[in-house]
Amino acid sequence: MTTPKFYTTEEVAEMLKLNVRTVRAMINQKRLRAVKIGNEYRVTDDHLRQFIEDYQT
Fold first, then answer.
1. Apex 32 CA angle, 28 and 19, nearest 5
2. pLDDT, tens digit only, all 57 positions of the chain
3. Is 40:8 a contact under the CB 8 Å cutoff?
């Protein structure tokens, strides 16, 4: 079993061409799944892929 890749909110914002505040708002609104590690949210590769797929449909 492989360890999932985790992205910071900054990395997700850059990949999606969004503001970091927008990404954090989507996490708070439960539109984008994330896990909190320490004081930071992290988005797994699978959750990011799922978000993109859901957004495109």
1. 75
2. 678 899 999 999 999 999 999 999 999 999 999 999 999 999 999 999 999 999 886
3. yes
- Residue owning tokens 């914002």: 13
Domains in the chain and their CATH numbers?
6-56 (1.10.10)
Q: In Å, what is the CA distance from 54 to each residue of 32, 48, 49?
A: 10, 10, 9
- pTM of the predicted model, to two decimals? 0.88
d(CA 2, CA 13): 25
Place of tokens 């959750």: 47
